[in-house]
Amino acid sequence: MAELPSTTGSPMPSFPKVDIHTHVYPESYMTLLRSRSTVPYIYDPPSNAPSRLIILSSDDNPSIPKENRGRPVDSSYYDVNEKLSFMRTHNITTSVISLANPWLDFLSPDEAAFWATKINDDLNALCESQAPHSGTLLNESSLLFAFGALPLSAPSTDIIANEINRMSSLKYIRGAIMGTSGLGKGLDDPGLDPVWAALESTQTLLFLHPHYGLPNDAFGGKETIERYGHVLPLALGFPLETTIAVTRMYLSRVFDRFPRLQILLAHSGGTLPFLAGRIESCIAHERKFVVNGGDVEGPGKSIWDVLKQNILLDAVVYSEVGLKAAVHGAGSVDRVLFGTDHPFFPPLNSKEETWLSVTMNQNAINSAFGEDSESAKAILGGNAARILKLDA
Ligand code: 5CU
Fold first, then answer.
1. Could you tell me which residue ranges the Amidohydrolase-related domain spans (predicted)?
2. Residue 341 Cβ < 6 Å to ligand 1
């Protein structure tokens, strides 16, 4: 592929650079958040001060005035032009956008199907609106693709399965994003089986992403959390939440019952690659799982096989050590995919054009595998293009 022109002056890479972890709140979802006064919500101060986004329950502290709660929400959260500008700055050729947390988890059962259809159609239309007329990127494919949202609070799992089937025929949808609460009871809930079945039969990739973190007590209580801002919940709460969720899926034999299920884990699997051996050891020493002696049927597949066959990891881990653990855990560079987490973690100094959160991940890839190496290219885009069929 020839080198592509870039509006920032620096050349676009001559290979696809695909961001598979990048969020948006479509306009319709912003309106939904503005209509609410409990988490998640957007607060518009009566003054000209910036609107505030309050999505984490730890941010909704009544002792803090509403105009200081959560974080300022600017157009990078919803304006596609901001996304495109961010992509150009970081030489990203294609983004697979997804609704940001907490997705549709908070909706009442009667609203869920409506909003899932609306958001997924909106995401598909947004991608369509950016599709180049004459192909310049990724062998004539589109600039934007999307992971759809699921109506998990709907009154029946048939509604969720129907939306999975429907979204899998939308042109730009390449998977579904989901949090760790599932239907409200976590991901080892047998009630989720129809959802796993629909994902498996349509070969829809599930992007599993944290939102709820850990209870405040795990960090020493609310005051301790507040003292350190978002560091404890985001650096530790998010990855541990993902690790616990996927381990519960594994222990409850989801991957034995649905052997073709494909899951992309946010933040390089939380701590799963690092802890897989410990999980394996604890299972081997757990009497509950002893064949003919225990009272719970333990997982049949080894955790390492699940990592190699059912799990993909993003490369949003910010260090060479973490990235190498992800690649070793996944069994190959072919199952690790570049992402940015845009629009979260913007530069604190608004004059900085390049985002530290992006360069840290890019540098980890370059230092682990060598700039321009085949492995780096695979992680930066080749894997996503192949796995998500971005040029189909
Ligand atoms: O900064 C944060 O709170 C977040 C978030 O909520 N979701 C996410 O994907 N990244 C960072």
1. 145-390
2. yes
Residue spans per domain, the chain: 18-387
**DSSP-derived 3-state class of residue 52:** strand
**Other beta carbons within 10 Å of 53:** 22
In terms of Cα–Cα distance, which of 264, 257, 390, 272 is closest to 326? 272
Q: Which residues does 374 contact at the CB level (< 8 Å), separation at least 6?
A: none
Mutation test of ligand 1: which of 207, 344, 361 has the most ligand atoms closer than 8 Å to its C-beta?
A: 344
Amino acid letter, residue 28: S
266 lines ligand 1 (CB under 6 A): no
pTM beyond 0.85, yes or no: yes
170, 118, 180: which is closest to 146 by C-alpha? Answer: 170
Pairing of the two strands 41-43 and 52-54: antiparallel
Residue nearest to atom 10 of ligand 1 (CA): 344
The CA 223 to ligand 1 mean position distance, Å, reads 20
CB 121 within 8 A of CB 149: no
Continuous segment of H or E residues that includes residue 53 = strand 52-54
Residue-wise pLDDT tens digits, 12-59: 666 799 999 999 999 999 999 999 999 999 999 998 889 999 999 888
Task: Say how many Å lie between the CA of residue 298 and the centre of ligand 1.
Answer: 33
Q: Give the integer Cα–Cα distance in Å for 171 and 385.
A: 15
Q: Whose CA is nearest to atom 4 of ligand 1?
A: 344
The DSSP 8-state label assigned to residue 149 in this structure reads E
State mean pLDDT over 162-169: 98
User: Contact at 8 Å (CB) between 339 and 19?
Assistant: yes
Q: Whole-angstrom distance between the N-terminal and C-terminal Cα of the chain?
A: 17
Asked which of 133-147, 228-242, 339-353, 378-392 is least confident by mean pLDDT, the reply is 133-147
Pick the CATH number of 18-387 from 3.90.640.20, 3.40.50.300, 3.20.20.140, 3.30.565.10: 3.20.20.140
* Chain segment 103-161, per-residue pLDDT in tens: 999 999 999 999 999 999 999 999 999 987 654 455 445 699 999 999 999 999 999 99
| 39 Cβ closer than 6 Å to some ligand 1 atom | no
DSSP class of 210: -
Beta-bridge partners for 184? none
